[in-house]
From TrEMBL:
Protein name: HmuY protein
Transmembrane segments annotated in the record for this chain: none
Origin species: Chryseobacterium paridis
InterPro entries per record: HmuY
The UniProt record lists the keyword Transcription: no
Keywords for this protein: Signal
Signal peptide: 1-21
One Pfam family it belongs to: HmuY
Length: 370
């Protein structure tokens, strides 16, 4: 009898261990306490993109903004995004059917309009929809079609190089870019479980080709047209919640009057592709009191923004200031609620965007799980 009891006990232990080892997707546990995160975007040139997972806040992923040009979606659809952090733009080349035959003289007039920051509402067609809804956008690069001949040849404005970090940048100012990175002509086709990209300089008569296989652990697989190589940029799908970056946004001269695409500093995007959402809480009275007393029971799920990656965007700071408080500074009357891809809630408040000497590009925020 005693032998049977021992045998049963060992059997149960073995069964439990077997179940645990077979669980390839364990439940993710949020951090028990909050933290302060310093997002090093590289000072006033803001050369870096910084990707942050609030559930693993000690592991920040950073890349140079010029490390990539195109992002290839890994889901069922075939869509491609531009690197808006370096002000890229793109347009179909009219009547072009052979990438090798396209010459710079064929696109001379197009080059004048395929730009960011021209204060023309029409130039929004040349950039990705800034809300991040790339699957339904009618701008930028269109859906990659099954039939090769249905995929157009595009003129790609590669944006601008990073500014010299050793240049003399006044305190409180930014210098986000320098010389243009040039132009490419591209055509993107479907490949088995991925994409085939053809690319070349404008006057080249022989294109280069690269196959990009969808890695579904990530939202996008990235490619650098300058080096002709893939690039590791975003963390895995559910391993980032928000990112600090420069950003191509839409600017308005007045409510409802668009001035087209414009390049923003000190911007934050949320991972809406993986289901991250957020909203702003405006404090009345003391921000400290409002933030510290905010609990999970205070969350209003109806306010969560899940269809726009700009839910935080530029709402956490101002770059113009007022007569009373001149210059760029973090707003002191608001904080944010974020729901991550796993369904956990956090509250965030931004503390600074400059170092003690007044140099921009040194952001810091604190957060707590709810």
């Amino acid at each position: 009898m005693k032998f049977l009891n021992i045998f049963s006990f060992l059997f149960i232990i073995t069964a439990v261990q077997s179940c645990l080892s077979a669980d390839e997707d364990p439940v993710k546990v949020p951090p028990m306490t909050g933290s302060v995160i310093n997002a090093d975007v590289g000072g006033p040139t803001e050369a870096n993109q910084v990707w942050i997972d609030l559930s693993d806040s000690k592991k920040l992923v950073t890349n140079k903004r010029t490390d990539w040009d195109l992002g290839f979606y890994t889901g069922d659809d075939y869509r491609v995004i531009l690197n808006g952090s370096i002000a890229m733009a793109v347009a179909k080349i009219p009547n072009a059917t052979d990438i090798n035959s396209v010459k710079e003289s064929d696109v001379a007039s197009l080059k004048e309009t395929v730009q960011v920051g021209t204060f023309n509402a029409a130039n929004m067609q040349y950039v990705d929809n800034p809300n991040g809804n790339f699957l339904t956008q009618s701008s930028g690069i269109g859906t990659i079609k099954e039939n090769d001949a249905d995929n157009p040849i595009y003129l790609v404005n590669l944006g601008r190089n990073l500014a010299d970090p050793n240049s003399n940048i006044a305190a409180g100012s930014v210098s986000l870019s320098s010389d243009p990175r040039g132009w490419k002509k591209i055509q993107i086709l479907r490949a088995p479980n991925g994409y085939k990209i053809r690319y070349a300089d404008l006057n080249a008569t022989n294109y280069q080709e690269y196959i990009i296989t969808k890695d579904t652990e990530y939202n996008f697989n990235f490619f650098n047209l300058k080096t002709g190589t893939p690039a590791n940029i975003q963390p895995k799908k559910k391993s980032w919640d928000l990112a600090f970056t420069t950003f191509t946004n839409e600017v308005f001269t007045s409510p409802g009057n668009s001035a087209g695409s414009y390049f923003y500093a000190d911007f934050i995007i949320t991972n809406t592709t993986s289901g991250v959402s957020a909203y702003q809480v405006t404090a009345t009275g003391s921000l400290d009191q409002a933030y510290n007393s905010f609990k999970l029971s205070n969350v209003d799920p109806t306010k969560l923004v899940s269809n726009d990656q700009r839910a935080i965007g530029d709402k956490w700071r101002t770059t113009t200031g007022t007569n009373e408080v001149p210059g760029a500074f973090v707003y002191a009357d608001r904080f944010f609620v974020l729901k991550d891809a796993e369904g956990f809630y956090f509250k965030l408040r931004f503390n600074k965007m400059k170092d003690p000497q007044g140099n921009r590009g040194h952001a810091s925020f604190e957060f707590e799980p709810l």
